[in-house]
Write a structure and sequence with these properties.
Shape: elongated
Order of helices and strands: HEEEEEEHEEE
Number of strands: 9
Mean pLDDT: 83
Largest sheet: 6 strands, antiparallel
CATH topology: Lipocalin
Radius of gyration: 24 Å
Low-confidence stretches: 13-37
Number of domains: 1
Number of helices: 2
CATH architecture: Beta Barrel
Amino acid sequence: MSDTHMPPAPRPWRALAWALPALVLSLAACAGGAQPGGLTGTEWRLVEMDGQALPERPAATLAFNEPGKVTGSGSCNRFFGSVTVSGSQIGFSAIGATKMACMGPAGQLEPRYLAALQQAQRHEIKDGQLLIHVRGQATPLRFVRTRP
């Protein structure tokens, strides 16, 4: 009989022990960045504000192109900012915009729209439309999906 030393049998749990923390961190990052309600990757056009229908042009829009970020058009200027979504709660912050002069209806809509976003409290997707409920407003902002 030989007295050679045999290596220990591989232990599959060791590989799992190394991979598990990376997997947990990856899943946490995905879950933390995902916006409930399927908002990430969607774009919307504002069709109703203060209970009044809005014209299709100039369009006020809202885009959730990446987690935690929002962009869009106020109807004249482009805007950008941060968004936090937790369940049905939604909040917009750090909103900045370009400063082109806006005349007529676009000039009247834009400041009201951007102010309303900053007072947003909750959202829901109902009948394929995004409703954003705003503090102090009886009716929500109503959007139709433009992408996807």
